[in-house]
TrEMBL record, chain A:
It comes from Tothia fuscella. One of its GO terms (biological process) is regulation of transcription by RNA polymerase II. This is Cyclin-like protein. Keywords: Cyclin. PANTHER family: CYCLIN. Pfam families: Cyclin_C_2. One of its GO terms (molecular function) is cyclin-dependent protein serine/threonine kinase regulator activity. InterPro entries: Cyclin-like_sf (IPR036915), Cyclin/Ssn8 (IPR043198), Cyclin_C_2 (IPR031658). Residues 48-75, 366-410 are annotated as: Disordered. Residues 370-384 have a biased composition (Basic and acidic residues). The keyword ATP-binding does not apply. The keyword Flavoprotein does not apply.
Automatic annotation (TrEMBL), chain B:
Component of the SRB8-11 complex, a regulatory module of the Mediator complex. The keyword Repressor applies. This is Serine/threonine-protein kinase SSN3. Residues 354-402 are annotated as: Disordered. GO terms for cellular component: mediator complex. Keywords: Activator, ATP-binding, Kinase, Magnesium, Metal-binding, Nucleotide-binding, Nucleus, Repressor, Serine/threonine-protein kinase, Transcription, Transcription regulation, Transferase. Its cofactor is Mg(2+).
Length: 410, 402
C-alpha cells in the first residue's frame, strides 16, 4: 500500500477533492438550488402575510365597518410583487472567505489559542459545508462557532462547551453567542459534511520535509548520507546545492529555517483559506508552499528525488500541479495582505440580510423542535408543545415540497 | 457527486432496515441486528448512539466519542475491518450501520469450552490470526490504533472472514493523544492490556495492539484468557491504581521483566511496584515460563506433534513469544508478525475462510427481543470484564420496529 493509495482511500480525496471545473459547477449548482428555495420561501411568506392581513382586515371591517385600508391593494393584486434579490456565487464566496479568515483569527488568537490543526480543520469543515449549502440558507456567522467547536471534537482537543462559549464571548463581535447557538447547527453541519470529519493537513509533511533537509545538511558537512536517500554522492550534493540554490553547506540550514517559517505561515493562512485543499493533495500543497518561497531548493530536491526513479513518467505533470498550486497560494497571499474591501463586504452582507431564507433563520428554534421529536414530549407544557408542533409541521410540509424531507420526523 | 448538494433526499432508518433484535449495549449506546429492505440487501448491525441528554451538566452536543468513531469509520475500508455501510441521522440520534457478522471470537471460544472442551482446529486459529493481523496492519498503516482489541471485538462472518470491530476507542496516532489517564473515562478491558500501560506509560503506541493479539492467540489455544487478572477499581477519580493483580498474572507465566531485555523498564512510572510483586508469592518468584505454558496447553488440548496443518507447533510458540515481548520496541509489529514462519510452515497461505475444513458448526449470534434481557450480562458481544454493561441511568427506549 503506497501513500498515494492510502490518500486515495481517504474521505478527503473521495468526497472533497475536485477538478477546478467540478468545483465551479458544484458551487453554481448549490447557488441555483438555494436561490430557488429562497424565492419559494419568500413566496410562501408573502402568501402567509397576505392571508394574515386579509384576515385581520376582515375582522377589522366587522368591528368598525371600514375594511378599505391596506388589504385592498393586495386583494386586487395591483401591488407589484418585488422578487427578492439573491446572492451570486461570487458574493457567496466572498462571504464564506471573509468568515474563513475571521475564524482563523478567532481560533488561533486570544483567548482560544487552539493549535493549528484544530483551527485548520474547522476552516476546512466550514468550507466543505458551504460547497453544498448557501449562506442564504445558513448565515456563516451562525455556522462559524459551531464548526470551530466541532473541530475541537474531531481533533481530540476537548473543550467543555461552557468554557468554549465563555471564551467565544470574549471575542469582539461574538459576545452574544450562547451555548444553544453553538449547538443548534451541529446536526445540520455534521450531515452536510456527510459524517466525514477527517481532514488531512500538510503539517506532517512540513515536519517530514524539514527532516529531509536536515539529512542533506548533515550529508554536506559529514559524509553520512543514508542508504537510498539519493543517487548523488555527498560531494555531488554539495556541488549541486551550491550551483542550484547558491547555498554552501555553511548557510544551507539557515536558509531552510528561513523558508520553514515562511512556508508554515503560508500553510497556516493562505492554504487554509484558499481552495487548495479541494484541488490538491496535502503533499502538493506543501511543495507548492515551498516552491513559493524557496523555488531553487524545492527544484533541487524534487529533481534529485525524481531522478532516482528514471521511469517516473509524472515529473512534468507533478511540476505543472505544483506550479498551479503555487500560483493559487501566491494569489491568496496577496489578497490576505491587501486591505479588505470593507465597503464591498458590507454591501454583500446587507444584501444577504434581505435574502436570508426566512424558514431557516431561527436555527435554535428549529433545533428545539426536532429535539422534542426524539422523545421528550411529555415534559413540555402541552399547549406550548402543540403550538410548536403545528408550526413545525407546517415548515416541514413546505420543506418536503422542495427538498424532500428535511431532518426526518418520527 | 450530485448527492453532495442539499437537494438530495435523506435516508431514514426505518425506510431501509427492519430491526430484528437487540445485540449488546455499552456506555456509547446500543447495537441492534437489522434486516435490510427496500433495496438494501442483507443483514446489518446498527449502532445507535445514546441520545444526548440536553440540559445536563457537561452536555456538549454530539459526544466526542461518537464524532471520533464516525471520523474513523468513514476512512477505513479493508476486508478485515468491519465495514461501515452508512451513517444516518434521525431524530437527532446518530446511527452507524455496519455489516453484520454472525460470530465473534468470544462466542467461538465459548462454544469450544461449553461443548466438550475440544480444541479449536489449528488451521482455524492460523487463519484467524492471519486475517486479524492483516486487518491490524491496515489500521496501523492508516495511523489508527485500536486500543481495545479483545475476543469480543473480533467479528467473524458466517463465511469465515475475520473483521476487527468496535473502533469506539480507536485513535489516530498521527494526532496528539490524550492518555488513558486523563482524557478517557472509558475503561479498557485489562486482560489484554500491554505491560507498558500497566506500568504507567502515558503514551500508546501501536505495540499495545500487538500485545492484545498475543493474548488473543493464547486464548484461542487454551480457550481461556491467558492473563485473567482482577481489576483494581479506581477509588478516587484523580489517581489511577496500579493493576497489581493483572501484572502479577503476567509475571506468573512469563516472569518479571528484566532491564537487560527492556532498557526503558526502569523509567516506567510504576517500576517500583514490580519489586513488591515478587515478595511472598511463590508463582511470581518461580514463573511457569511461556514455553512450559505453551506445551502444556497443546498437550491438554491434544494437538498432535505434527503436521503443521494440525498443530501450531514450535513456530506458534515463537510467534507468541514475539507478540508477548515485554519491550514494546522489540515486540513484533503487525507487518513482521505476518511474515512469521508460523504462517509459512504449512507450505500454503492460511485459508481465507477460517472455518474451511474445520467441520465445526457455531451457533448463531443471540439476539434478544425483550428489554428485560438487556440487563443480563451474558449476551454475546458484550464486555465481560465485570464492568457494568449498561450504564444508562434510565431504561433506554428500544428501537421501534417497522
Amino acid at each position: 500500500m503506497t501513500e498515494d493509495e492510502l490518500y486515495r482511500a481517504s474521505s478527503q480525496f473521495r468526497l472533497w477533492n475536485f477538478t477546478p471545473e467540478k468545483l465551479v459547477s458544484l458551487r453554481s449548482e448549490t447557488n441555483a438550488i438555494a436561490c430557488r428555495s429562497v424565492r419559494e420561501a419568500f413566496k410562501r411568506k408573502r402568501a402567509r402575510d397576505q392571508a394574515l392581513s386579509a384576515e385581520s382586515s376582515n375582522t377589522a371591517s366587522d368591528a368598525d365597518g371600514n375594511g378599505v385600508s391596506h388589504g385592498a391593494a393586495t386583494k386586487n393584486g395591483a401591488k407589484e410583487v418585488k422578487e427578492v434579490e439573491v446572492l451570486t456565487v461570487e458574493e457567496e464566496m466572498k462571504m464564506v472567505d471573509f468568515y474563513c479568515s475571521n475564524m482563523l483569527n478567532v481560533g488561533t488568537g486570544e483567548p482560544f489559542n487552539f493549535p493549528i490543526n484544530v483551527t485548520g480543520t474547522s476552516v476546512q469543515l466550514f468550507k466543505r459545508f458551504y460547497l453544498s449549502h448557501s449562506p442564504m440558507d445558513y448565515h456563516p456567522k451562525q455556522i462559524m462557532p459551531s464548526a470551530l467547536f466541532l473541530a475541537t471534537k474531531t481533533e481530540g482537543h476537548h473543550t467543555a462547551l461552557k468554557i468554549f462559549v465563555e471564551k467565544l464571548n470574549q471575542v469582539p463581535g461574538l459576545n452574544k453567542v450562547t451555548a444553544e447557538d453553538v449547538l443548534a447547527p451541529e446536526f445540520i453541519l455534521t450531515q452536510g459534511l456527510r459524517f466525514c470529519f477527517d481532514v488531512r493537513h500538510p503539517y506532517r509533511g512540513l515536519k517530514g520535509f524539514y527532516l529531509e533537509c536536515r539529512i542533506m545538511d548533515q550529508a554536506m558537512k559529514a559524509s553520512n548520507l543514508p542508504e537510498n536517500f539519493s543517487n548523488q554522492t555527498e560531494e555531488e550534493m554539495r556541488e549541486n546545492i551550491k550551483r542550484e540554490t547558491k547555498k554552501t553547506s555553511q548557510d544551507f540550514l539557515a536558509d531552510v529555517d528561513h523558508g520553514y517559517g515562511l512556508v508554515r505561515n503560508t500553510l497556516n493562512n493562505a492554504a487554509l483559506v484558499s481552495d487548495a485543499y479541494f484541488l490538491y493533495t496535502p503533499s502538493q500543497i506543501l511543495f507548492g508552499a515551498w516552491y513559493l518561497h524557496k523555488p531553487a531548493l524545492i527544484k533541487y530536491y524534487l529533481d534529485m528525488k525524481l531522478s532516482q526513479n528514471p521511469n517516473s513518467p509524472s515529473a512534468q505533470k507533478l511540476w505543472d500541479v505544483i506550479n498551479d498550486c503555487t500560483m493559487l497560494l501566491e494569489e491568496k497571499e496577496a489578497q490576505i495582505g491587501a486591505v479588505a474591501d470593507r465597503a464591498q463586504l458590507s454591501r454583500i452582507d446587507k444584501k444577504l440580510y434581505k435574502c436570508r431564507n426566512p424558514e431557516k433563520i431561527d436555527l435554535v428554534g428549529l433545533n428545539k423542535a426536532q429535539k422534542r421529536d426524539a422523545g421528550k414530549e411529555g415534559q413540555l407544557d402541552e399547549q406550548k408543545a402543540k403550538k410548536r408542533k403545528m408550526a413545525r409541521e407546517k415548515s416541514e410540509k413546505e420543506g418536503d415540497d422542495l427538498f424532500g424531507p428535511d431532518l426526518v420526523k418520527p | 457527486m450530485s448527492s453532495l448538494t442539499s437537494g438530495s433526499s435523506r435516508k431514514r432508518i426505518y425506510g431501509c432496515y427492519t430491526v430484528i433484535g437487540f445485540i449488546s449495549s455499552g456506555t456509547y449506546g446500543r447495537v441492534y441486528k437489522a434486516q435490510g429492505k427496500n433495496g438494501q440487501v442483507g443483514q446489518f448491525a446498527i449502532k445507535k448512539f445514546k441520545p444526548d441528554k440536553e440540559g445536563e451538566i457537561g452536555y456538549t452536543g454530539i459526544s466526542q466519542s461518537a464524532i471520533r468513531e464516525m471520523a474513523l469509520c468513514t476512512e477505513l475500508t479493508h476486508p478485515n475491518v468491519v465495514h461501515t455501510v452508512e451513517i444516518i441521522l434521525e431524530d437527532k440520534c446518530i446511527y452507524i450501520v455496519f455489516e453484520y457478522a454472525e460470530h465473534d471470537l468470544l462466542q467461538i471460544v465459548h462454544h469450544h469450552t461449553q461443548s466438550n472442551r475440544h480444541a479449536i482446529p489449528a488451521r482455524t486459529i492460523k487463519s484467524i490470526m492471519y486475517q486479524l493481523l492483516q486487518g491490524l496492519l491496515y489500521l496501523h498503516r492508516n495511523w489508527v490504533m485500536h486500543r481495545d482489541l479483545k475476543p469480543a471485538n473480533i467479528m467473524v462472518t458466517s463465511n469465515g472472514e475475520v473483521k476487527i470491530g468496535d473502533l469506539g476507542l480507536a485513535r489516530l496516532f498521527s494526532k496528539p493523544l490524550n492518555t488513558l489517564f486523563t482524557g478517557d473515562k472509558v475503561v479498557v478491558t485489562i486482560w489484554y492490556r500491554a505491560p507498558e500501560l500497566l506500568l504507567g506509560s502515558r503514551h500508546y503506541t501501536p505495540a499495545v495492539d500487538l500485545w492484545a493479539v498475543g493474548c488473543i492467540f493464547a486464548e484461542l489455544l487454551s480457550l481461556r484468557p491467558i492473563f485473567k487478572g482482577e481489576e483494581a477499581k479506581m477509588d478516587n477519580k484523580k489517581s489511577v491504581p496500579f493493576q497489581r493483580n493483572q501484572m502479577q498474572k503476567i509475571v506468573e507465566i512469563i516472569g518479571l521483566p528484566q532491564k537487560e531485555n527492556w532498557p526503558l523498564l526502569t523509567s516506567m512510572p510504576e517500576y517500583s511496584q514490580l519489586s513488591s510483586l515478587s515478595s511472598g508469592i511463590h508463582r511470581v518468584s518461580t514463573p511457569q515460563g511461556l514455553e512450559k505454558w505453551y506445551w502444556q496447553t497443546l498437550q491438554q488440548f491434544k494437538y498432535p506433534s505434527s503436521p503443521p496443518s494440525m498443530t501450531p507447533g514450535s513456530d506458534g510458540l515463537s510467534l507468541l513469544r514475539g507478540l508477548l515481548d515485554y519491550d514494546p520496541t522489540k515486540r513484533l509489529t503487525a507487518e513482521q508478525a505476518l511474515k512469521h514462519q508460523y504462517f509459512l510452515s504449512d507450505g500454503e497461505k492460511p485459508a481465507e475462510d477460517c472455518f474451511e475444513g474445520s467441520g465445526m458448526e457455531y451457533p448463531l449470534r443471540r439476539v434478544s427481543q425483550e428489554d428485560n434481557d438487556i440487563r443480563s450480562s451474558s449476551l454475546p458481544g458484550t464486555k465481560r470484564s465485570g464492568l457494568p454493561d449498561d450504564s444508562f441511568g434510565r431504561p433506554a427506549k428500544r428501537l421501534k420496529e417497522g
